């Protein structure tokens, strides 16, 4: 069997003596996939160095071999904080008002992709399958092809692909999109993101998209399709049954003191709709005086990308808004919002999910959102909670039995909370069973197999074709 070489911006493989573990959805999914293959996970260590040397740090833990490099301060500022998170991230999440276009950002982005290509190229064997991940590394496939790589190579985008009318606001957008054609397979979470890409190819690149997923631009062709990512369902079930999860469950239940718990777990990011969520919850408190003192919102929002000024603004705004809501509605023995700016291990979160009667997951735009799937997987089959989910999350296309809401509408969020609190057990069980079946069947193994199977079927590798 061919090795699988996974390449992503950061490598968050399991580490010894790391109590938090790999918490991100991509981290968990890739670690699970790599255990199925003998391979390597290559990427940035997250550390900085005074001078880039190309030194690779190899480690192996829990069946995952990682290979990491350090980047220079300028690399991190221009490539990661700059082009990736101040240009592409807001643009791809439909926030062109927040996107920053700076020539140095684009230069740093190309430079780091070149450094990735030059460093990983010697590690790749002739029959390896290459799987590149996310918006940080879009040009990497083309960089590897320029260095003679002929292997089958796939790319997966974990965030939305924006509509053409937004994508064209990016300087040199054609070059970025054309570099994707160096891959053999391109994956998106949903048909919507796939269709946005196909529309761009036809409108801006003069390409043609066949019904079988083949995209042709000139002499170049690639297979593109939707592969919705899932969670490691079996592993998460073990997390739910762990002593740590049981302790977290009891901790939250005890502190709730008989009140109903609404939980939200999101990175501190403007795409997650946290301000809109707080305002929707505030509207619920205004409209439902009988529920005051009987319910509270636990919002866990660990900070991210602190070097980007936009995120500092978000944190300040949420601090102010949560304080204002608590000041307006709190009683001496009840606080309506518990707003927590720290991360928790997966086992703790599993216990919190199970203890919460409602999950409020309302991103303004999200590639998938694995928190919604984890909440479903954590529920008690005999007495499950209710998932309130933004219709603009990729997961909404699979979890159709959630209460789907418009995250921009305070009234929609308020009405959904009231409906969730009043929902009969029979309806809760029926909705949960349908969602749980999907989360179980279309899990991370299904996702990985779907994509890698497509990559293996993409035709002979370019080295084989040359022979």
Question: Key features?
Answer:
467 residues, alpha/beta, Rossmann fold, 17 helices, 16 strands, 18% strand
Give an overview of the whole structure.
This protein is an alpha/beta fold. The protein folds into two domains: 4-230 and 445-460, Glycogen Phosphorylase B (Rossmann fold); 234-441, Glycogen Phosphorylase B (Rossmann fold, 3-Layer(aba) Sandwich). It contains 17 helices and 16 strands. The chain has helices at residues 25-34, 73-92, 103-120, 140-146, 164-167, 173-179, 191-204, 233-240, 243-256, 274-287, 309-329, 346-355, 370-377, 410-422, 425-441, 444-456, 462-466; strands at 4-10, 39-49, 57-61, 64-72, 129-133, 153-156, 185-188, 208-209, 214-217, 220-226, 260-265, 295-300, 337-340, 358-361, 386-390, 403-405. It has a ten-stranded mixed sheet with strand order 3-4-2-1-5-6-7-10-9-8, sandwiched between helices. The model is unreliable at 19-23 (pLDDT under 50).
């Amino acid at each position: 069997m061919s090795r699988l070489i996974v390449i992503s911006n950061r490598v968050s493989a399991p580490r010894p003596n790391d109590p938090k573990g790999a918490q991100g959805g991509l981290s968990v999914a890739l670690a699970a996939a790599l255990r199925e293959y003998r391979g390597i996970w290559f990427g940035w260590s997250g550390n900085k160095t005074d001078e880039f040397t190309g030194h690779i740090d190899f480690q192996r833990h829990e069946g995952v071999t990682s290979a990491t490099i350090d980047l220079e301060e300028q690399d991190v500022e221009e490539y990661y904080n700059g082009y990736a998170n101040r240009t592409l991230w807001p643009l791809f999440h439909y926030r062109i008002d927040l996107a920053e276009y700076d020539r140095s950002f684009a230069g740093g982005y190309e430079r780091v992709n070149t450094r990735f290509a030059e460093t990983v190229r010697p590690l790749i064997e002739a029959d390896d399958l290459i799987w590149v991940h996310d918006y940080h590394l879009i040009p990497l496939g083309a960089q590897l092809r320029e260095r003679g790589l002929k292997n089958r190579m796939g790319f997966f985008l974990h965030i939305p692909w924006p509509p053409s009318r937004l994508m064209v606001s990016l300087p040199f957008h054609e070059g970025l999109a054309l570099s994707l054609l160096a891959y053999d397979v391109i994956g998106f979470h949903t048909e919507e993101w796939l269709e946005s890409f196909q529309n761009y190819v036809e409108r801006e690149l003069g390409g043609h998209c066949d019904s079988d997923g083949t995209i042709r631009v000139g002499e170049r062709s690639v297979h593109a399709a939707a592969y919705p990512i899932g969670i490691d369902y079996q592993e998460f079930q073990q997390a739910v049954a762990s002593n740590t999860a049981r302790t977290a469950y009891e901790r939250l239940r005890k502190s709730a003191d008989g009140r109903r718990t609404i939980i939200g777990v999101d990175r501190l990011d403007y795409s997650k709709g946290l301000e809109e969520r707080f305002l929707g919850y505030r509207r619920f408190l205004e409209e439902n005086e009988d529920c005051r003192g009987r319910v509270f919102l636990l919002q866990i929002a660990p900070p991210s990308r602190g070097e980007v000024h936009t995120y500092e603004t978000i944190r300040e705004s949420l601090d102010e808004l949560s304080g204002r809501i608590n000041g307006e509605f709190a009683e001496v023995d009840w606080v309506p919002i518990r707003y927590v700016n720290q991360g928790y291990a997966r086992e703790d979160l599993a216990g919190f999910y199970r203890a919460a009667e409602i999950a409020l997951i309302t991103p303004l735009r999200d590639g998938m959102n694995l928190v919604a799937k984890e909440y479903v997987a954590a529920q008690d089959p005999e007495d499950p909670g209710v998932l309130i989910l933004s219709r603009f999350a990729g997961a909404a296309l699979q979890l159709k039995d959630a209460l789907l809401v418009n995250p921009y509408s305070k009234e929609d969020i308020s009405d959904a909370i009231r409906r969730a609190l009043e929902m009969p057990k029979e309806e809760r069980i029926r909705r949960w069973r349908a969602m749980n079946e999907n989360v179980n069947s279309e899990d991370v193994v299904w996702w990985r197999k779907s994509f890698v199977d497509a990559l293996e079927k993409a035709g002979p590798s370019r080295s084989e074709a040359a022979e």
